[in-house]
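Figure S4 source data
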Amino acid sequence: MNRPLPLRRRRPRLLAWLLAAACVGLALGAEQIRLHRSTSLVEMVAPLPQGFEPVLPSSSLASLRSRGFEDQAEAGLIRIYQLVARGRLSQATHDSATLAERYPNFTLAQVLRGDLLLANAGRLTHFVDVPPGSGKPGQVAALVQEARQRVRAYTEAPAFGDIPSNFVELGPNVRHAILVDTSRSRLYLFGRAPNGALHLEANFYITQGKLGAEKQRAGDLRTPLGVYFITREVGKRWLAQIYGAGAMPLNYPNAWDRLLGRTGGGIWLHGVPPESYARPPLDSDGCVVLANPDIESLMRHVDGGTTPVVITRHVDWLDASQIAARRAALRQMLARNGAASDKERQDATMLYFNGQHELLVVQYSGDGRQHPVTHRDYWSKQNGQWHLFHTGVLS
């Protein structure tokens, strides 16, 4: 039987444990960690990539929003973890009450509130200290994993100004692009400036398929990996409650998926039922699921039919010069292969994906017989050479 920890005598160890358990899912006593007031949240989360030296900003909500954390509930949660890391348990407890009251359906916030109350009373025995019989082991593990993924998004955030290698170029008619990183349970929204430069506008926690990513067939409970486009938007009034505040279907399966024999359909970005704020990291039938405020925010920003969505389990973050070099090399490749005119290449959207095979999707406008049309070409790399394997015209 676990014995409660006397808070006054073992406060440093308790604070260290609470943070480590919330971030990496460790039980009390599994690690002998002592936390000093000068210890940062980054130092408590291990392992970090070799040479990774992130700058830990202020934990203020304004600072978090400046780094793309638009979800106010999540920003409040991260701030409380930061307060715990700094030894400010009283302030963390106070803020947790505000967060839990403001978002009564945010389960992780409610659990953190309960743990902090138990910690102040010297009765906390383990992370997610729920009463016996009130939760299943799998549900507790899912909460730990959700906490871990949310904090990792903060401590392992990309450097300011870095862009995913997938977004080689966005054409002038494409205002936004979305990247889903399944390994981080994260969605990143990038905006395109008039000069073509990309900037991070927001990033959100997401849920993926129950069995992870790399969908192959209908009903396999996996989320597809690849390059997709939002086809349209579906408002709340047209949806069953399970889809929450809105939905944006993707064009899965696309030409690449069909070439590889992938089946299925109905892959959407959508929200959650009103009784929930978020779902565990692995809890959908294959869709990408966001909190309702987050899907509503996306639907205010993005355009159906033109917004690309790259879903990957690994992201290479590049700086502006590296992106420019890749763009120039791929433009030269398209020119050598006679793909589109010079003007069409200059205005093209180029999206790169590196999974089991390298894929390049190029979308550009052209003149049809009666009205402008949009071309979408799919290139694959074989034996070191790019080959066009599918070209289509969108109405």
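Figure S5 source data
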Amino acid sequence: MVTRPPTVRRRRLGVQLRKIREDRGLTLDQAATYLSISKSALGRMENAQVVARVHEVTYILMMYGIEEGDDLRSALVGLATGGRSRDWIRRHKLPGKGPNYGEYVMLEQDSSELFTYHTDLIPGLLQTPEYARAVMASVPSSGLSDIDEGVAYRMARKEALTRPDPLVIKVVLGEAAICQRMGGRPVMIDQLRYLLELMEWPNVHLQVLPFAAPNNPGVDGSFTILDVEAGNFPIVTVDCLRRRVFIEDEEGVAAYRGVQAALCQVTLSASESRERIERTVHDLQHCMTERKSR
């Protein structure tokens, strides 16, 4: 029988429960006796082999002396609760994407802030339907069986940007992302105009990393850092064709935070980035006009 690997939340919750127990000098046997929980049940929670319920986590933390109102307690109960994504995922059918896609989207919906660096692609949360369709059609082996469903799902993800407490998204785009004519000139013109509109939103921050930058701290490739509100933790994701890698350890996240800071030192300013995008729109429109006049 094939078993699904534990989710990011379950792994984090298990690690924290084990750390709290060990900090109190308790063996698994001693903790099980103290908590009146079977050793196997407690061990499965700590090893992320089962889903720990909210009432179980609340009870364990209370018994370990972590009081209500403590930030750690709030974070761990948040991990068990799952956050706003539980309702969101019920309303939107997951398309036939590759492994970990659903988990990423749930983390995205549960985040308060997101930083993403893309070398040659507009990130999904900022895409128009036509641009998204062109992207999906470009990768026939992505695992997506129905492009219409994939586009609809991607557009639904953007609810995070307009909810009452909207997701704050900070983006660094490689200049190639705005220069490649994904889907053709009309599609790209509409996409870039949409970016210009989004840049007026208070929760959308976008800067361009120009070809002329003296160095590129993100030379290893695109990545995303999510500040997950439900559980209060940051996580890095790196995408491949059929796989998404989650980087959870503090050292790994810190390394990508360093890249984020370094990237922001060599990008164009917000106003310069806007001018660069406007110039690209103008150039694309000029090319289309010239072609029609021939």
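Residues 160 and 166 are 6 Å apart (CA to CA). The chain has two domains: 8-81, 85-293.
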